[in-house]
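Hey, can you fold this one?
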Amino acid sequence: MGKIILTGDRPTGRLHLGHYVGSLRNRVLLQDAGDFDRMFVFIADVQALTDNADNPEKVRQNVLEVALDYLSVGLDPSKVTIFIQSMVPQLHEMTQYFSNLVTVARLQRNPTVKTEIKMRGFGEEGQEQAFGSGVPVGFFTYPISQAADICFCKATTVPVGEDQEPMLEQCREIVRSFNSTYGEVLVEPEILLPSNLCCRRLPGTDGKAKMSKSLGNCIYLSDDPAEVKKKVMSMFTDPGHLRIEDPGKVEGNTVFTYLDAFIEEGDFERFWPEYRNLDELKDHYRRGGLGDVKCKKFLLAVLNDRLEPIRARRHQWEQDIPGVYEILRKGSEAAAAVAAQTLHEMRDAMKINYFDDAALIAEQAEKYGSR
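Sure. Predicted structure:
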């Protein structure tokens, strides 16, 4: 079997630069390289509802926002199957079967689950270890649902950020458990991380460890130039760099982290020819004599250069919203057909294919003397 790629996002808001450098940019590169048998990208609305059950309209509206972001970054529905999670009902049945292979204790040890529980305020410190601490069951078990999302198409490769590594490991455990219990049906996926280390977890504009919608420290792919300028100019830098002549720190400086993530060949020649490359710029900043505002203006030029074609494509797709929904409908139907085949193989292996098992029916008929 060849390479099958699967990845997706929760529709809890528009996608931001952290999504872009952590996964979206890599998806487009993979798509354009064409080195795969099939590629699936999905909108995880069921997973979004695990902690937004009281606000389904938020999820409903953001399904379209995420779809527009996918198309605007350059994902091509003629090459990639884009679908909505809830429109593939086979995923829910797979999730149920997988839940029998995972213990409560194992879910409690999942670092991503523990972090997300604390971030969303479901319980006080330490409460996430106790059953019934206020964590919705659906949220607590979403690693199992995510395993179904990956396994339905027998994905071999999952391009995500490094924070998802614990989820991939749990999925691999589920695959091994299923295959050892019932037979070799499923495939263990491998994570594909960005090669640029600073892209694996882009910090927020405030310098916090992660860019997050809930923290309000995002630059969105759909932000207009004025909004991007406002956010870049307020970015966290080096708090000790009070005067231009002061030596500055590059490490932990959000502006330079973003430059590391976004800089491309030719950017200095076009936007700041005083320097040949990023190393020269960093050396000057470390020595002193270089102000934060100049560095931010350079970053702003780089970001707008990356974002302008994304904005233009988004504007085009916004003129054909029915067409966007048609892409999602066709993609969901295609994904459901693939999921149905995998589910059929799973049910065969689990011996719950009662109506398809002619040998079982004949055996039981003979046992009871039935004609």
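Residues 223-316 form a domain with the Tyrosyl-Transfer RNA Synthetase fold (CATH 1.10.240.10). Let me know if you want another pass with a different chain boundary.
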